[in-house]
Amino acid sequence: MRLKTKYPEFSQYRSQTDWDGATGATAKTGEGHSLKLDTPKTYQGHGNGVCPDELFTTAVLGCLNDTFLDFQRRFEMDLISLHLEAVTDVKFDGQGYMITGIKVTGEVVVGQDELDVGKRCAELMTEYCHLYRTIKDCIPFEFDISVREESSD
């Protein structure tokens, strides 16, 4: 069954990078946001910016976060806090590096009598996050997200 969306059927995102003359670059998004990228010191970089692997991991978390919040708004759920963390494992296989897995952990705290809705939002987050949906068959994921209620008194 095809889902109806209230959002555009098609989106396109643009970014550009310009080398910084050393071991990194300045990235700029199509919306004009800038970000300093750099190679980690472990790989003979200066470490003066965000490592692309960190940015990749952060992008996955950001997509999960945004997807959760979309459902939270739809259900009008009382959300007290949403905390996500991710660890991305990268391994050298003799020819180059590959991401071998991503573990996402976190805690969702919802208002009183919102536990079931909070759990459902967490399920829908992993079901509908488009970055996760795109890469889940290529990269093993593990999720450990707890949901608990807290009185709003």
Please provide a written account of the structure:
There is one protein chain. The protein is α+β, with helices and mostly antiparallel strands. It folds into 2 domains: 14-50; 51-149, GMP Synthetase, Chain A, domain 3. The chain is built from 3 helices and 6 strands. It has helices at residues 52-75, 115-128, 130-135, and strands spanning 15-19, 24-29, 34-38, 79-92, 97-110, 141-149. The strands form 2 sheets. It has a 3-stranded antiparallel sheet, with no helix packed on it. Strand 4 and strand 5 (97-110) form a beta hairpin. Helix 1 packs across helix 2. The chain is globular and about 55 Å long. The mean pLDDT is 95.
Helix content percent band: 25-40%
CATH architecture of the largest domain: 2-Layer Sandwich
- Characterize the biggest β-sheet: 3 strands, antiparallel
What order do the helices and strands follow? EEEHEEHHE
Descriptive terms for the model:
single chain; 153 residues; alpha+beta; GMP Synthetase, Chain A, domain 3; 2 domains; 3-stranded antiparallel β-sheet; 3-stranded mixed β-sheet; 6 strands
Please give the structural blueprint.
Layout (H helix, E strand, L loop, with lengths): L14 E5 L4 E6 L4 E5 L13 H24 L3 E14 L4 E14 L4 H14 L1 H6 L5 E9 L4
Parallel strand pairs: 5-6
Antiparallel strand pairs: 1-2, 2-3, 4-5
Helix pairs in contact: 1-2
